[in-house]
Records
---
Amino acid sequence: MIHCLVVGHAVSMHCHPSLAGRKMLLCQPLDANKAPSGAPLVAVDCFGAGLHSEVFVSTDGIGARHLVHDNKSPVRHFIQGVID
Amino acid sequence: MRICQIIGRVTLNVSDPSYRGGRWLLANPLDPGQLGGACGGMQPVTKQFTLVAYDSLGAGPGDVVGIVEGAEAMAPFDFSIPIDAITVAIFDTIHYQPVSPDAARPVHQA
């Protein structure tokens, strides 16, 4: 799991059918001192994480496929939890 | 999913038989500074490693796409195909609002 900060969202009309209607958030990975490190990732969100909230992003494809209920979905990053 | 910009196409001469009919694009990952106006037009090519990604959505040069890498890129196929990058979404708009370092982040005391 990657500790990330939500820094925006992406809108896509033309995507894989399993992503249709899913919220795609831009997540900026953070290092140990909560400083941005690396380029933002796009993660599928099902928990309603807001802008600038801290989240855990998982890179497990099997979990992502269960999340979108499609065994043929190429999605990989998804938000696993919003940190209080 | 990484945000990349399509800068060209690749045509294969000799390739794996499972690649027949496949469409290959040159995807250049965008820098965080370019994400604000990403879908406005052709962005300057960044110094990051350019990928060759399998495409099934019909993206063209100048489009901003989401690329998934790794074993998940083979998930959409019924047959075994040796690829590790695929286009998953063509983005229409990207809203990017990074927290400025001096912005006071609300600290929640438990």
---
Amino acid sequence: MTDIAAPAPHHAARFQPAATERPAVRVLLTVVALAFLGLFLVLPLVSVFYEALSAGFGAFVKALGGRETASAIELTLLVAAISVPANLVFGLTASWAIAKFEFRGKSLLITLIDLPFSVSPVTAGLIYVLMFGAQGYLGPLLAEHGIKVIFAVPGIVLATIFVTFPFIARELIPIMQAQGTQDEEAALSLGASGWQTFFRVTLPNVKWALLYGVLLCNARAMGEFGAVSVVSGHIRGKTNTMPLQVEILYNEYMYRAAFAVASLLALLALVTLIVKSILEWRYADEIAATRRH
Amino acid sequence: MNALTPLEAETSIALGAPVDVTIDAVAKDFGDSPALFGVSLDVRAGELVALLGPSGSGKTTLLRILAGLEAPSAGRVLFGGEDALGLPVQDRNIGFVFQHYALFRHMTVFDNIAFGLTVRPRASRPAKAEIRRRVLHLLNLVQLTGLEKRYPTQLSGGQRQRVALARALAIEPRLLLLDEPFGALDAQVRKDLRRWLREIHDRTGHTTFFVTHDQEEALELADRVVVMSKGRIEQVGSADDIYDRPASPFVFSFIGESTLLPVVIEGGAVTFGGDPTGLDVNKTERREAVLGFRPHDVTLVEDDAPAIRGRIVATRRHGGRRRLELQVGPDHLRAEIDVEVGDEQPLGTLVGFRPQRWRIFPA
């Protein structure tokens, strides 16, 4: 940039590129941003791991080995294993419909997809209690058939799906809209069937956005507290997920165990970010290529 | 990009037999706004046809209807005498080259070209070695040999265009459709590619339609030019027909540079703004009409003989001559004429001229 914009020497003192701040301002802004991040993000994260490991690695493993904690980890994995694929299918179909077709009610659909972002998770949980609870609309009918949703695993899965469903769709919609339908039309004109077009053209075109969406969706599915807390009923060893288990342990003054479980969740967040960064770094060219058109 | 060299004589390519195309009263509405009003056109097998018109003329819509990417609201389309509208896009066997090429970004050049062959059902899919042979053959035809492992983003615009063409030819189409094939290219690349596409067409013999808004491209490349405006065909003809015998004021003004002036025909003479122009026609009854002429087809009239007169409001250099912009008639209409460099006069001068070649259209 400098070799293009370099002004004649005697102008140098007065020359000030429009979009460049003075050095002092730059340093100040950077320091403020870093201090803020350090205080509110890095410090808590470090202290979680510090507390979890303060009595040594053996104690850490022991704290995680409790029957109830193990069951909470299992349940969390199960819930994520169901809700992430469900949202994968939903996110793909919704963004496909929004990006590739014109239809009435399209903007309503886009607004609805954002609803879970704007509704408090507690409210989301209560909606499910109202629908499927013992006093709810469908609760008695389900009870007759021996199906228990609220205070059971199905309720937790439903609440998690609700809370996490914008993540994949939101990643896909803009990129699919930007790419348009020409690639699909080209594939069809070359004789490809609808499925071949989807699997060989549409899906590869959005795979990185899809992967980001899945990572974010998974992190949120495992970490969701509010909505799950309302529908779970906190039955120990049965309907507690990891975030709920952290709260229980904490309320019972079992700090080390609470921090041990919390550190696993923090680790999940870190791994998610690291994988995301590695993908961005490793496949930067390809990602840029799929966004360009 | 590599320079485009003339095709070698032995370069040949397998193809689906080219077909006649009949377009019969095809209409298309998008919601309330009509895009095509009952368009009809017959095209012989192997013909190279340009659909020429400004944006919004319906040319791309017509092309997409032929491909099966749009369904017409009314009318028939026949390929080789058989109904084509009943066939879904996959079964029409058409090579479509998109305006922005629509190459598959995540596939190499090789995989892009092979795509149409690899998606065929197992029974009709060529063997791997055969697919490879055909792709390499097509790469040779479009003069991109050696680039089969590249990705589309690693190619220049002209190279991408040629990959898109090879990909469309790979399925041995009955019909080749190109949407603004040179629209996104530099002027020089465009010229090379144009000449080269003509050669490919002559070699392969596909019935070919291409859409363009560039008259020069259409007139130079096509056997026949279809001029479209506002969802209708204005004229179909050879470059000479279109240029020398325009069927409507629209065609006259769209093709080449021109001035159109409202005139009155009275007693066999053409009058403009009440004054005789010195032009005669063999019609006697009085009627209003439109006079059309081109800037280079006029001569200056020095004396007081009948002529169109106007004041010079602007001059600019135009190729080897100088173009004068005149205000003519009582309504201060604009007319453009070319004069020899050296004949120029100061702005504001009143000059008279008379078209040497001109056309009268009904008002």
